[in-house]
From TrEMBL:
The lineage of its organism: Bacteria, Bacillati, Actinomycetota, Actinomycetes, Pseudonocardiales. Its EC number is 3.6.1.27. Catalyzes the dephosphorylation of undecaprenyl diphosphate (UPP). Confers resistance to bacitracin. It is found in: Cell membrane. It catalyses: di-trans,octa-cis-undecaprenyl diphosphate + H2O = di-trans,octa-cis-undecaprenyl phosphate + phosphate + H(+). The keyword Chaperone does not apply. This is Undecaprenyl-diphosphatase. PANTHER family: UNDECAPRENYL-DIPHOSPHATASE. Belongs to the UppP family. It comes from Pseudonocardia kongjuensis. It comes from the Bacteria. Bacitracin is thought to be involved in the inhibition of peptidoglycan synthesis by sequestering undecaprenyl diphosphate, thereby reducing the pool of lipid carrier available.
């Protein structure tokens, strides 16, 4: 893997991880268009560690508070009745589906799921679903009112992102809006929900990333650092954006990119594999 490829993919990862446009899909597309190859699911998963470190740094106080509240809840009945204790458990519960499905379908995720035909279709289909959720979701429920049922549903929505083109944040935002959550609430929960699953995926696939003609250890570290810096800036921007704006701009972008990708594949401009 060349240094240019490492830098470009690190930038793409940082820019797209938190937007509902599919970072894994963009990594797959960018790598094929500019470098004529697939960087592999392992490279994508490990580079996401950089963006999740950005989440930990950005939300350090919130995360520490949830963690300590969760621990205190084991011995204090009063703490177990708080919204923060329940939210901490919901993050844990919501992380289970992607962990289980990621292990069960590891081979398919690393092979057939990376076809650009599938990426294009998922970009369009889940773009339309995101638009419908924005249009018809009540958006009245704050983050404190997320239920266990909501947490499980959002966990399975996040797990759909194992297919490039779906988008982890896009899946959770779509499901969250459909469940009546406000945009700021679901985006914030989506950030928290991603931490255990993305770190788990990165560590799980770390041995695979250096196989074959993959990156060196130094190159992988640089990609992670780039993703961290860019991802941190995107977090701050996205939280401000969703306060006063709809997600229709992302819907339009997803559909346009999906259609353009289908056209490029149809005329043989790029290879699907």
């Amino acid at each position: 893997m060349s240094w240019l490829e490492v830098i470009v993919l690190g930038l793409v990862q940082g820019l797209t991880e938190f937007l509902p446009v599919s970072s894994s899909g963009h990594m797959r597309i960018a790598s094929e268009v500019f470098f004529g190859r697939d960087p592999g699911a392992a490279f994508t998963a490990v580079s996401q560690i950089g963006t999740e470190v950005a989440v930990i740094v950005y939300f350090a106080k919130d995360i520490w508070h949830l963690f300590t509240t969760w621990l205190r809840g084991f011995r204090d009945a009063e703490v177990r009745r708080t919204d923060d204790y329940r939210l901490a458990w919901l993050v844990i519960i919501g992380s289970i589906p992607i962990a289980v499905l990621g292990v069960l379908f590891k081979t398919q995720i690393e092979t057939v799921a990376r076809s650009l035909w599938l990426v294009a279709v998922m970009l369009i289909v889940f773009g339309v679903l995101l638009g419908l959720a924005e249009r018809y979701g009540r958006q009245t429920k704050p983050i404190e009112r997320i239920t266990v049922r909501d947490g499980i549903a959002l966990g399975f929505a996040q797990a759909m992102a194992l297919i490039p083109g779906v988008s982890r944040s896009g899946g959770t935002i779509t499901a969250g809006l459909a469940l009546g959550l406000t945009r700021p609430a679901i985006v914030r929960y989506s950030f928290l929900l991603a931490i255990p699953s993305v770190f788990g995926a990165g560590l799980f696939t770390l041995p695979d990333v250096f196989a074959g003609d993959g990156p060196s250890g130094v190159q992988m570290l640089v990609a992670v650092l780039i993703a961290f810096v860019v991802g941190y800036a995107v977090i701050a921007w996205l939280l401000r954006f969703v306060q006063n704006n709809t997600v229709y701009v992302f819907v339009a972008y997803r559909i346009a990119l999906g259609v353009a990708l289908l056209a490029a594949l149809s005329i043989g401009a790029i290879s699907a594999t």
